[in-house]
Amino acid sequence: MSRYMILLIFMKWSIDWDYRMFTATCFDGLTPQNVTCDSDSTTADMCPLDYGGSGDGCQPPNLITSLINIALSPGVVDEPMYAGQTSVQTILLLLALGSIPVLLLAKPLTIRSRMKKAAARHDSFSSESQLMAGEHKSSDKVENGGHGAAGGDSGGHEEHDFSEIVIHQAIETIEFVLGMVSNTASYLRLWALSLAHTELAAVFWEKTMLTTIQMGNAFAIFIGFAMFAGVTFGVILCMDVLECFLHALRLHWVEFQTKFYKADG
Fold first, then answer.
1. Which H, E and C letters describe 101-153, residue by residue?
2. Of 72, 74, 52, 49, residue with least CA distance to 62
3. What confidence tens digit (pLDDT) does each residue in 97-143 have?
4. pLDDT tens for residues 176-225?
5. 182 contacts 259 by C-beta, under 8 angstroms
6. Where are the domains of the chain?
């Protein structure tokens, strides 16, 4: 899912949204009411919601909302970025859900098959040994009785080991699924944090610089610039950068630990 998120980011960067809106409205028959495709028309007048617009200009879709809707609203894409996006996201969701039983059952069934093959080879070797020792009838009876009891113990031990394998694999599957959800949520949270910093910088600019510029007083503008520079350096360049760095470091460290590190001793 993280790779698909990165793919959507690059697609969003590479699409000319203004040109796409214009061609969609003028050539695909999706022109809104009371809008004509002439030289006086602007792209802000021709941005239907189905193509990523919101009525006030050609805005690209919100990727965070698009990614969340993959799980919350499967099969529904309000602002598509490419043809067939609904089908692709539905297939990705089905693959993610279908991988859970594969993770849960594939390894235990493979181990059980190997254990049965090993037990069959052991029984075949024991049968050959008994045939070679067939001339000693009395000793054969003793050996057959002892071996039968051992076989029963081996069967019970095999079933006990297999149940432990299934329980262990179930725990591993639950941990992997929860870790996948947690890591994806951390990526989205880090992304939302960067968007929040953008909004915060805009608020600082509006409250400090724009307000003083509208006053028309040079001294007020100087004070406003000093305030804007101070909050930009302290909040955006120091506190927020450190917050993003620590958050990304924790995310990658935890993700690395859950994928490759077992700490078995």
1. HHHHHHHHHHHHHHHHHHHHHHHHHHHHHHHHCCCCHHHHHHHHHHHHHHHHH
2. 52
3. 888 888 888 888 888 888 888 777 766 666 666 656 555 554 445 44
4. 888 778 777 777 777 777 777 778 888 888 888 888 888 888 888 899 89
5. no
6. 1-83
Q: What's 167's DSSP letter?
A: H
Please report, as a single letter, which amino acid is at residue 74.
P
For residues 67 and 56, give the distance between their C-alpha atoms in angstroms, rounded to a whole number: 24
CA 7 – CA 11 distance, rounded (Å): 6
pLDDT in tens, 37-75: 544 444 444 444 444 444 444 566 777 777 788 888 888
**DSSP codes joined into one string, 197-257:** HHHHHHHHIIIIIIHHHHHT-HHHHHHHHHHHHHHIIIIIIIIIHHHHHHHHHHHHHHHHH
Structure tokens at 128: 């050959």
Nearest to 32 by CA among 16, 43, 20: 43
| H or E element at residue 99 | helix 85-132
pTM metric for this prediction: 0.53
Cβ–Cβ contacts within 10 Å for residue 11, how many?
Answer: 14
| Nearest Cα to Cα of residue 230 among 251, 209, 256 | 209
CB 34 within 8 A of CB 122: no
Distance CA 63, CA 191 (A): 10
**Is residue 130 a contact partner of residue 140, using CB atoms and an 8 Å limit?**
yes
Structural contact between residues 228 and 208, judged by C-beta atoms closer than 8 angstroms: yes
CA distance 116 to 156: 13
